[in-house]
Design brief:
Strands 2-3-1-4-11-5 form a 6-stranded mixed beta sheet. The chain has a 5-stranded mixed beta sheet with strand order 8-7-9-6-10. With 190 residues, it is of the alpha/beta class.
């Protein structure tokens, strides 16, 4: 029997939920956080522990047969992968937020503004659909600080509870994507 290769996030909330799902499927394996791959001892499955941003490429290239990632990552990376299933966990939203002191009457208020994000592809698509022209600053983390240091007028970032936005003086004004964990597969995998 051929071994199935499954890529999961190596750390974080999505990793914990993915590993819980695997365990609930009755699949057993030995692993410690220093190892980036392990073999199940009761099922023909090899687990690859990767950065979530890398999983779509590994799956698209056939290095991993399937992967569990956030739908937002799948859409942002734009790799040719099959969406197998929405997993029903790790739900969040990709939202635009502005300083709490800013007046916001709608998406057109962002015309000519600077927006910091780790999701430039999804944000640009949304702005284009809304007819808004804004300058996108791609940053890979700590997006919420951008307005307070003068880098941007707004941010577009993942939100679960909204507490990080609030603690950084921001308010959520526009949800552009609702996301959850998804299972993806190499094209043509049947």
């Amino acid at each position: 029997m051929e071994t199935l290769k499954l890529a999961v996030q190596k750390s974080g909330r999505l990793s914990e939920k993915s590993l819980q799902f695997i365990k609930e499927c009755g699949i057993s394996y030995a692993w410690n956080k220093a190892k980036l791959k392990t073999q199940s001892y009761n099922f023909p499955l090899e687990l690859l522990f990767l950065r979530d941003d890398d999983i779509p490429k590994y799956v698209a290239d056939g290095v991993a047969d399937i992967g569990i990632i956030g739908e937002n990552v799948m859409l942002e990376k734009g790799k040719t992968v099959g969406l197998v299933e929405k997993m029903g966990f790790s739900r969040c939203r990709l939202s635009i937020a502005v300083p709490q002191t800013s007046e916001y009457n709608g998406i057109s208020d962002l015309n000519g503004k600077k927006i910091a994000t780790s999701y430039p592809v999804i944000l640009q698509k949304h702005l284009d659909e809304q007819g808004v022209t804004a300058e996108i600053h791609e940053i890979s983390g700590s997006v919420e600080i951008a307005p307070s240091i003068g880098l941007a007028d707004a941010v577009c970032d993942l939100v679960s509870t909204g507490s990080t936005l609030l603690s950084n003086g921001l308010k959520e004004v526009e949800v552009i994507l609702r996301s959850e964990a998804v299972m993806i597969a190499t094209p043509g995998l049947s």
